[in-house]
Amino acid sequence: MTYVDRAGLQVAAELADFAETRLLPGTDVTPEDFWAGYAAMLRELAPVNVQLLAKREALQAQIDEWSRARKGLRFDVAEHTAFLQKIGYLAPEGAPFKVETQNIDPEIAQVAGPQLVVPVMNARYALNAANARWRSLYDALYGTDALPGTPSGPGYDPQRGAQAVAWAADFLDKAVPLADGSHSDVTAYRRHGAELIADLGGKSSGFKDPSVFIGDVEHFETARYLLRHNGLHIELLIDPAHPVGKSHPAGLADVILESALTAIHDCEDSVAAVDAADKVLAYGNWLGLMDGSLTESFEKGGKTVQRTLAPDRDYQAPDGSRITLKGRSLALVRNVGHLMTTDAVLLDGQETPEGMMDALFTVAAALHDTTNSKTGSVYVVKPKMHGPEEVAFADTTYARVEDILGLPRNAVKLGVMDEERRTSANLVECIRAVKGRLVFINTGFLDRTGDEIHTAMQLGPVIPKEEMKSASWLNAYEDGNVDAGLATGLNGKGQIGKGMWAKPDDMAEMLEAKIGHPMSGANTAWVPSPTAATLHATHYHAINVFDRMEALKDRAFASRDALLTPPIMTGRNLTPEEVSHGLDNNCQSILGYVVRWVDQGVGCSKVPDLNDVGLMEDRATLRISSQILANWLLHGIVTEEQVVDSLERMAVRVDAQNGGDPAYRPMAPGFTGPAFQAARELILQGTSQPSGYTEPLLHAYRRQAKQMYGA
């Protein structure tokens, strides 16, 4: 790598060029001030970062020693709690307080709805997510298993279309009912003064709540009627010439739902960014989202398609005034955590914290914001922090970034991901540490489970992966996250979020299950695709989340005893069949993800599981699977020989599952490539990996693959 000197830093030439020719021009920040500020920030804060990571390891070492002394004994949660308090793992709680964040966009603070998460390195996905604010309900139904059966024939299937129209009419009856009659019987929608009227054969009806109609655009026989319910918008598209509209008595060609209110553009778990070139790609796409310039061309149906950011949407209110609604999802960016370092910037010849580089570069890109925040805010999601001290350090880091870039204090808003055990156990104090800029907390089952296993690694063998969702600690974790957000006044200030729906092809199941997220008091939840966002949006019409928050705010706080009880198998032996299934299931999951990450640089994709069900996977999946097998290996549930045998057999299976990919490199029969070796080491070295994270090994083997394959 070629380096250039900047304020005493050794900066990768391509990163310096990006900063000086693309990132900073058009801002008030000079390259000299940018690099001098960054150098001073690194000299002061990088040593603090090192100290915080050392404290993680010291606490874990004490927990390991305590656990080894009690292996096989009955777990005593009171004793465990007292021990955690003694070593400083559990922080003392201060006086009650409320979040103080100001200047928050309404998509974050005032409206509940779905949240997309996409790898920012993929421009097409980033644009799809940005444009997922408005989506066709008919399309989401027609092309998925949300409706029974499948479309017939290569063209439009009128019977399938009729199913979608009927489902949508039932949705409208529930969300925006007519005063008299059903949307399924409407023969015409029309303006009558300030009201929207529905004709139903020989009678007419307004809406049960006339205020749901807030605007329209009428042009001869076509119209767009805008409704609002629970803060979310619904557009009725009238077009009698449309293939669907011409078969509908009212000419209703589509029902457009406001879907993904927000989208997290990810620099972390869903990308494979291991060097300066990768980081420049990520930062460049984020910059394009901020200044509106991001485009992407691709082949579809034999034609070249160019995708750009969607424009805003204009309507006329009943009083004649103009309504302009954002055409794009509000964009957040996820930076990496405190752990990893990067050789893209060296200080005194040493790698520097990647999270600090993300902080400076992604916030600097937001200086160009012309399409995103209406309040002058920059929304950053910060993952993988352990406890209040680390959250406070993030607050300090972004304050320093604000100073370098000339931003007012707390212009950068932070989302704190509740995905590590020490954060969950101290969540209220974590919120206190960033109360001036907090806009987001959420739960993430997979990473959180990975840390749960690693923390209790020496205590005993853990339960199988399939049983984790019924473990008592998990329910306390999910409820406690909402409890902490409500207790600190986050409702009305930010998002309380829930995790990803991992099955992008199973929308019928999602419609049944994911309504549990708004019912839990969460005002957002992650979805894997724009289509899933549209279908999940119907849940926020069914449930008024802010009413749910009000109903839940006085309940008893989730049990800390349950939260601190690890998922250890006590007095139970697994059958040989359970062990074999657990081995193969986890090995296949690890290999299916790692082979794309290491060989192809794909950080997030739909990976077939052991039963050939496509699951949307990122690094969090890898963490839980590798930690379970590392734990079983440590406690003699499996042997190293069994692990290697399962990996080799599952590699053959994964090779077959990827047989249709011309860019795929098979792992069998040699089992010597970097992808297979990475998967092997993630298990065999899982006990010693920091907090059970997969990044150190993945990065090393991805770099090896880039050298071997030239990509």
From TrEMBL:
InterPro entries: Malate_synth_C_sf, Malate_synth_sf, Malate_synthase_TIM, Malate_synthG, MS_C, MS_N, MS_N_TIM-barrel_dom, MSG_insertion. Residues 16-70 form the Malate synthase N-terminal domain. Pathway: Carbohydrate metabolism; glyoxylate cycle; (S)-malate from isocitrate: step 2/2. Keywords: Acyltransferase, Cytoplasm, Glyoxylate bypass, Magnesium, Metal-binding, Oxidation, Transferase, Tricarboxylic acid cycle. The active site is at R334 (proton acceptor), D618 (proton donor). Residues 578-668 form the Malate synthase C-terminal domain. Its EC number is 2.3.3.9. Residues 332-557 form the Malate synthase TIM barrel domain. One of its GO terms (biological process) is tricarboxylic acid cycle. The modification Cysteine sulfenic acid (-SOH) is found at C604. It is an enzyme of class 2 (transferase). It is found in: Cytoplasm. Mg(2+) binds at E419, D447. Residues 156-215 form the Malate synthase G alpha-beta insertion domain. Its cofactor is Mg(2+). Glyoxylate binds at R334, E419, G444, F445, L446, D447. Monomer. Involved in the glycolate utilization. Catalyzes the condensation and subsequent hydrolysis of acetyl-coenzyme A (acetyl-CoA) and glyoxylate to form malate and CoA. PANTHER family: MALATE SYNTHASE G (PTHR42739:SF1). HAMAP family: Malate_synth_G. This is Malate synthase G. It comes from Actibacterium atlanticum.
